[in-house]
Amino acid sequence: MDPQEIHVWEVALRGHENRVAALTIMMWDYLITLEDESRYGPPHQTCCEQSILYLSRTQPFKDVIRGCELKRGSEYLSHGPLKLRIYALYDTSPRIRALLIGAFSLEVLTAIVVFGVGSADNKVVAETMANIVRCNVTAIPSWLWVFWLAVTRQGVISSIYKGYRSVKSIGPQTLHHILVRDSVMFYLAIQVIYACNLAGWVKDPKTSLDLTTGVAIALPSVLSGRMLINVRHALYTPNALASPSDISLEEISIRPPDPPNADDDPNLIA
Known about the structure:
transmembrane helix; 9 helices; two-stranded antiparallel sheet; Rhopdopsin 7-helix transmembrane proteins; membrane; transmembrane; globular
């Protein structure tokens, strides 16, 4: 086996490890936030909000299903509305909403065209080494990186807009300012992952096809779910007694018991 082929196998193995690690992170985050999700859930939740949260929270389980033809579609159904949902937490401008919806629609159409046309020219051969079977892509269109360019464009629009709003509203650390700051970090973090995928596909699409795809799926799922839960926590109004873990030591006043009252006990001698 020549060095080039060994390198291809190493990259394929690394991509598989990245997908497993990403899936593990999503599953673990899902488990440790189940209690917060049920506790801080809004009392009146619309069907749309329930569907969006359900899609984002069950993304790890959909990724477990091997060979699912609707896997990519489910990712778009969860990540796209989640970005719009997070945006809606910070702004209600109809123009900006229309811009983001248009950018997301263009992103979906670009992905359909790129993979619809590009898949016709793909050539895949099954190769086996030891107990590992890999689908080796022997031919792939050189322009397939356009997909990540379309995905990145929407994130750039969101990042620039949120960065502008964050700089414009510098002031006291109110809830609104904190939310705007977190949304900027959300979009910037995703942009870094998308840019890495774009660079890899431009440089060597055969070996970089799935190298960082797992991270690109895990990061939006984890960050968006966390942000939604954090917002619910900030707006949460408890209607019951707090649990012992929510009570600080400063709120507990330790004092000696009151002296007995003679009126309560007739046998008590004054």
